[in-house]
């Protein structure tokens, strides 16, 4: 599953880190998590702890989008077979489906084909009525993939706004507050289109804290964010948005455009949402693998966030403590964390948050600590790498590494040092996964003596 395996160094610590990554990502694949959460018994559909009587509906439809949406639809087809009548998902990680149409879109910046796929999705939504049960397959990446520019906003406006937001350092709550108010589908507006159908959201969460209104910008979730909130984000990060976007947000804030529907809106009377996997799904299985390999696992948090290079420094400090004093765990140990770090882009290079995390960590690593950091969807930033894997031998010239960080150009830096992790699209999207493998001091000393 983890590509480039043979090209990576093969020390035990690297193998342990890669095994944790591989098992963690696999644990979050829809084929596994949907089978655990969704079941059919006669006419009774179970989704998590809720049941639905399929006998009460004429149509069972799958609609949605996100990096993993086609894999969610495939897993739903595997459970429900020909009970599914039709559907449309928009994704950049397609797979063959029986009754659901897969439309390919683009991520992280929306594209023409994503707009076309979303048009088909909305058309299918408009055909739903009170006798329709909609399974909404929603995963991270959905905000870019399900692109439905609202009002006078063009695709080019949406692309420019997305680029600027992604480079601003704003977090996903802030980014999506803006995207929801530039869209005809986000922020519960797909639920509005679907009413009075019954809607069952089946979500994979790549958002710290699992806020339903933020995962893929919450197409079928109540939204409490406002046009004013969107304007605040634009001001706070000094984002230069196209005129059509600025006009819409300004007009919306005066009440001239209806707000996205909130939790008291009757469009949600027949909507329920179920998160079937999140960052903890990944970390739990990665921990089990670490334990099987003889390392004491410690999950630090599923909620790490902030600037990637700074988060790396904090993680390294914890790993150093483990190595030096055995606090809070004794080596051999594996520290794990999830969440999502961000990068404030000032240069014009290639890279992503996990590659910056790995490069920044590598600048100060002592012997005995190996660090792997990946985005579980396999695509870190706008590069084709999932992330990086580093140890104290990776950075031979700290100035060079710092220059690469300053230029946001760590992809070529890590590539030259054979320190990229490449998986290709993984079929899931459950945020970042970071693994710190910390060897016993004696083993670490032995390694440096051997060199
Ligand atoms: O909004 C998105 O598309 C994200 O990736 C967060 O879920």
What does this structure look like?
This is Hydroxypyruvate reductase. The chain folds into two domains: 193 residues, glycerate kinase, domain 1; 250 residues, Glycerate kinase, MOFRL-like N-terminal domain (Rossmann fold, 3-Layer(aba) Sandwich). The chain contains 16 helices and 15 strands. The radius of gyration is 22 Å and the shape is globular. The relative contact order is 0.14. The chain is α/β, with parallel strands linked by helices and 451 residues long. The protein has a six-stranded parallel sheet with strand order 6-5-4-7-8-9. Strand 10, helix 12 and strand 11 form a beta-alpha-beta unit. It binds 3-hydroxypyruvic acid.
CATH class of the largest domain: Alpha Beta
Write down the overall mean pLDDT.
Answer: 95
Domain count = 2
CATH superfamily of the largest domain: Glycerate kinase, MOFRL-like N-terminal domain
Flag low-confidence runs.
1-10
**Quaternary form:** single chain
Distance between the termini: 30 Å
């Amino acid at each position: 599953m983890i590509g480039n395996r043979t090209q990576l160094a093969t020390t035990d610590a690297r193998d342990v880190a890669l095994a944790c990554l591989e098992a963690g990502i696999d644990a979050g694949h829809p084929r596994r998590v949907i089978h655990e959460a969704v079941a059919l018994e006669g006419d009774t559909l179970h989704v998590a702890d809720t049941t639905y009587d399929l006998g009460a509906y004429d149509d069972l439809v799958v609609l949605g989008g996100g990096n993993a949406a086609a894999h969610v639809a495939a897993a739903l087809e595997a459970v429900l077979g020909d009970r599914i009548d039709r559907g449309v998902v928009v994704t950049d990680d397609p797979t063959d489906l029986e009754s659901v149409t897969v439309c390919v879109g683009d991520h992280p910046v929306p594209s023409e084909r994503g707009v076309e796929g979303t048009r088909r999705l909305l058309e299918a939504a408009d055909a739903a009525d009170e006798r329709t049960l909609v399974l909404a397959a929603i995963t991270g990446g959905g905000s870019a993939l399900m692109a439905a520019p609202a009002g006078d906003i063009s695709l080019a406006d949406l692309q420019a706004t997305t680029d600027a937001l992604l480079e601003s350092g704003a977090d996903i709550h802030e980014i999506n507050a803006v995207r929801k108010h530039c869209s005809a589908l986000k922020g519960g507006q797909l639920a509005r289109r679907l009413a009075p159908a019954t809607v069952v959201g089946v979500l994979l969460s790549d958002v710290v804290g699992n806020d339903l209104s933020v995962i893929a910008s919450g197409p079928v979730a109540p939204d409490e964010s406002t046009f004013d909130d969107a304007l605040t984000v634009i001001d706070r990060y000094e984002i230069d948005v196209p005129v059509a976007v600025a006009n819409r947000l300004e007009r919306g804030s005066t009440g001239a455009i209806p707000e996205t529907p909130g939790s008291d809106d009757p469009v949600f009377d027949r909507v329920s949402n179920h998160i079937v996997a999140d960052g903890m799904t990944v970390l739990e299985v990665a921990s089990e693998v670490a334990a099987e390999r003889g390392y004491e696992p410690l999950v630090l948090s599923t909620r790490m966030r902030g600037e990637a290079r700074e988060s790396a420094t904090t993680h390294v400090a914890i790993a150093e403590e483990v190595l030096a004093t055995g606090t809070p765990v004794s080596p051999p140990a594996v520290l794990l964390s999830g969440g999502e770090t961000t990068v404030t882009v000032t240069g014009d290079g290639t890279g992503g948050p996990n590659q910056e995390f790995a490069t920044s960590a590598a600048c100060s690593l002592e012997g005995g600590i190996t660090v792997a950091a990946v985005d579980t969807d396999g695509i870190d930033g706008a590069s084709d790498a999932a992330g990086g894997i580093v140890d104290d031998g990776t950075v031979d010239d700290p100035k060079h590494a710092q220059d690469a960080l300053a230029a946001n150009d760590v992809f070529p830096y890590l590539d030259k040092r054979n320190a990229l992790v490449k998986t290709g699209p993984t079929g899931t999207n459950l945020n970042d996964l970071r693994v710190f493998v910390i060897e016993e001091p004696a083993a670490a000393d032995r390694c440096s003596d051997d060199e």
